[in-house]
Specification:
This protein is α+β, with helices and mostly antiparallel strands. The protein has a domain at about 20-80. Helices cover about 20% and strands about 20% of the residues. The chain has a 4-stranded antiparallel beta sheet with strand order 2-1-3-4. A hairpin with a 2-residue loop joins strand 3 and strand 4. The protein is elongated.
Length: about 120
């Protein structure tokens, strides 16, 4: 007897016919011709732009059905990931830190007497 098994299939993205275009490039083109990525929704276009910025590309603008949605200044302001936190330099074992980096000397108090 055959066992009919249905696999889970994700619902297809609803396509309204709108197209959102992300203009991007690896470096600013002298000719003004930008590479284009096309998405079916505003949310997908914003996510693609975030990803391109994270990879270090320049995202010039995002356009939608009604025209320019975000220009370069707005994209950088709203979508640019925060800069990474500065890393502390590693100090090899056995090498002492300068006094200024160590901070003030801790107060030296005598050890309390043990309880009876």
């Amino acid at each position: 007897m055959a066992y009919n098994r249905t696999s889970f299939k994700a619902a297809p993205e609803y396509d309204t016919g709108e197209r959102w275009i992300i203009f991007w490039e690896t470096r600013r083109p002298e000719s003004g011709n930008w590479s284009q990525a096309v998405e079916k929704s505003q949310a997908a276009a914003v996510e693609r732009a975030k990803h391109l910025l994270k990879l270090g590309f320049i995202v010039f603008q995002i356009t939608g059905p009604t025209g320019v949605f975000l220009d370069e200044a707005e994209i950088v302001k709203r979508l640019q990931p925060p800069p990474p936190a500065p890393k502390k330099p590693r100090i090899p074992e056995g090498e002492l830190q300068p006094e200024a980096e160590l901070g003030p000397e801790p107060d030296t108090e005598p050890e309390p007497d043990p309880l009876p």
